[in-house]
Amino acid sequence: MRRESGAAPAALEEPAPVPAPAPLRTVTTASGLVADGVSAWFSGRLVIESVSLEMEASKVTALIGPSGCGKSTFLRILNRMHEVTPGAELAGRVLLDGEDIYGPEMRPTETRRRIAMVFQKPNPFPAMTVEDNVLSGLKFSGKRPRGKEKDDLVEEMLTRAGLFSEVKARLKTLGGELSGGQQQRLCIARALAVRPSVLLMDEPCSALDPSSTRRIEETMREIAEEVTVVVVTHNMQQAQRVSDYCALFLAGENAPGRIVEKGSTKDIFENPKDERTSDYVHGRFG
Amino acid sequence: MSTPRVVTTDHLFEDRLYRAGVKSVGIGTFVLLVAIGAFLLLKSWPAFARHGVISFLTTTGFTTLGHHPSFGVAALLYWSVVIAVVAVVVGVPVAVGTALFISEFAPRRLRAVLVTLIDMLAVVPSVIFGLWGFYMLQPNLVGFARFLSVHLSFIPVFSVHSSVYSSSAFIAGVLVGIMIVPIVCSVAREIFSLAPLGEREGALALGATKATVIRSVVMPFARRGLAGSVMLGLGRALGETVAVAIIVSPSFIISPHILQQGGASIAAFIALRFGTGGQLGSAALLGAGLVLFVFTLVVNLGASVIVNRSVGGRRA
Ligand SMILES: Nc1ncnc2c1ncn2[C@@H]1O[C@H](COP(=O)(O)OP(=O)(O)OP(=O)(O)O)[C@@H](O)[C@H]1O
Ligand SMILES: [Mg+2]
User: Fold this and answer.
1) Residue B61 domain flag
2) Quick one: which of A64, A184, A271, B237 has the fewest CB in 10 Å?
3) Average pLDDT of the segment spanning A188-200
4) Domain extent for B74
5) Ligand 2 mean position to A71 CA, how many Å?
6) Closest CA to A263 of A278, A282, A237, A244
7) Least trusted range by pLDDT, from A215-219, B13-17, B61-65, B207-211
8) Nearest CA, atom 1, ligand 1
9) How far apart are CA B119 and CA B132, in angstroms?
10) Does the CB atom of residue A254 touch ligand 1 within 6 A?
11) CB B298 within 8 A of CB B239
12) Is residue B48 part of a domain?
């Protein structure tokens, strides 16, 4: 099903139908995410100001923009990681399927499980085995799959992250012993294992070689069927290859970051409305 | 074919000067340690020569007076270790718990206050601790010691053969345990704060609670360093002198009854006996000192090896 990019938040309340690929058990449905007038401060300094963005269900949205304009900060606000930083404050709402994740009855742990995150720097648990890394999110929520169920789950998640063939003989080695690119894909597998409805990725490929990068881009396209993906990237080709929608962040000299332009990736790259957008995507600044 | 050559930047004059300076300080420390050991060995030799080193280490009597002076540090060493172990058992959980609270839970302002308070605890002179222990801690602990001996006497260390609960190795151990809290706490705090932010956030982003982050990220990271801090505390406890001397009443019997009056420690014993017993007596005390010196050195060396490996080295 296709939806207009400008659909109202209310339209997101109905879950998008998911075509289930035969070999993969699918229990998640992608959710729409809407940021509404989000501002953020670090120790009293305003770093992003009234950002509103709709991230459509089952689509890949790319956040682009020069360094320091608040992309990571915005991303972390989307799954309540912002508040982990001492001195961090925010204003505005973030709606997951129409429900404010900062609402009083929402538990941050539950929210983070539904809106998973992959960080710029690979951060597997170095003292856990590859297998335990994949299962770690489930373990944190008290679930411990066993036997065949566990093996199937580990295989499925590692396959989706494009890592299974490389590590299938080394499931019991430590997560810290994999290469950087393998560690990043392990982190993706780990995030997918909790069956989130949204996956946030902060420059997931910045430390990776071209083939791992391609593998992860494929993964993003594949999982977008059932997981809404929001990805921060500095790589314009990558944004063009993977995303359906794009939002350009810019911050002034002493001004906080804002969204300059948002829309379909095609429009942003081929038919930008704002001059700064066309400058940025053509590498003329930033 | 090319021959390999060493490529180095170390030939710069400043570098060499700096290195020489640092090196000489390092060597100086080592020389001082060896000198202390050699001095102790030299001065205590008469006592070792009398009945042999083995006897010195394995017998328990320690009389310098009369016609048959005999020296054995076995009981003293035993009680030193007992007191140190009690200290670690009591002090380490408190210290680690406090460190966890400070580094993981306390709001920033409270954190600063707590750190200052604990650092201040470290500068209280041990004689003050000893006096406090004697007048304040001991009267309050005697009842607890009796309680343990009545209800848990089936565990050998809690059984007693006398009903005097004051001046025991247990009370001395608890006191020393309190005294080692600052050092263990500050090392533990340091280690906890080094637990990688990336892994912490990784766990949080998977829906982990704070307790889970501590269990699955902070603790696995800190395990080795904590073992080192425990050894450090053990080293401190072994060497503690005045406070122990004020509490215990020296005994030369090796027994498991830590709750009853008795116990001793090499350090406290030397302080109590120093200057009595003539030349041979002094030699014997210096010999006991040498045993303590070597023993603590080994414990501390073990501690620093463990700490360095966990903090400095890359983990797998
Ligand atoms: N923990 C923090 N404490 C204080 N200021 C912060 C913190 N993290 C980010 N900032 C500030 O917030 C602003 C936005 O940072 P952010 O990391 O979101 O930028 P970004 O767009 O992700 O940049 P990059 O592309 O380099 O990753 C910057 O000015 C940065 O200095
Ligand atoms: Mg960033």
Assistant:
1) no
2) A271
3) 94
4) 70-311
5) 6
6) A244
7) B61-65
8) A85
9) 18
10) no
11) no
12) no
Query: Is the CB of residue A125 less than 8 Å away from at least one CB of chain B?
Result: yes
Cα separations in angstroms, A184 against A128, A173, A206, A210, A215: 15, 16, 10, 13, 11
CB pair distance less than 8 Å for A119 and B205: yes
Q: In this structure, are residues B259 and B173 in contact, taking their beta carbons and an 8 Å threshold?
A: no
Beta bridge partners of A115: A198
Q: What is the pLDDT of residues A29-54, one digit of tens each?
A: 778 899 999 999 999 999 999 999 99
Output the domain CATH number for residue B181. Answer: 1.10.3720.10
Distance B160 CA to ligand 1 centre (A): 64
- Answer for the pair B168, B264: CB distance below 8 angstroms, yes or no: no
Mean pLDDT of A9-14: 43
Contacts of B198 in chain A (CB under 8 A): 119, 121, 123
Residue nearest to atom 22 of ligand 1 (CA): A72
Q: What local confidence, expressed as pLDDT, does residue A2 receive?
A: 40
Alpha-carbon span A257 to A42, nearest angstrom: 13
The amino acid sitting at B224 is R
Contact across the interface for A112 and B207, Cβ inside 8 Å? yes
Rounded-to-integer distance, Cα A134 and Cα A194, Å:
9
Question: Quick one: CA dihedral B40, B46, B47, B52, positive or negative?
Answer: positive
Say what the pLDDT of residue A28 is: 55
Give the Cα separation of A269 and A250 in Å (integer): 16
From the CB of residue B60, how many other CB atoms can be counted at a distance below 10 Å?
17
Contact B146, B153 (CB under 8 A): no
- In a domain? residue B32: no
* Count of domains for chain B: 1
**pLDDT of B29 over the 60 cut:** yes
Residue B283 pLDDT greater than 80, yes or no: yes
- Specify the length of chain B in residues: 316
What confidence tens digit (pLDDT) does each residue in A151-189 have? 999 999 999 888 898 898 999 999 989 988 899 999 999
In 3-state terms, what secondary structure has residue B138? helix
**CA dist., res. B138 & res. B142, Å (int):** 6
Q: What is the pLDDT at residue A119?
A: 94
Residue B285 domain flag: yes
Average pLDDT score over residue span B250-278 = 86
Confidence of residue A23 (pLDDT cuts 50, 70, 90): very low
- The band of B1, judged by pLDDT with boundaries at 50, 70 and 90, is low
Distance of CA A225 to the CA centre of its chain: 14
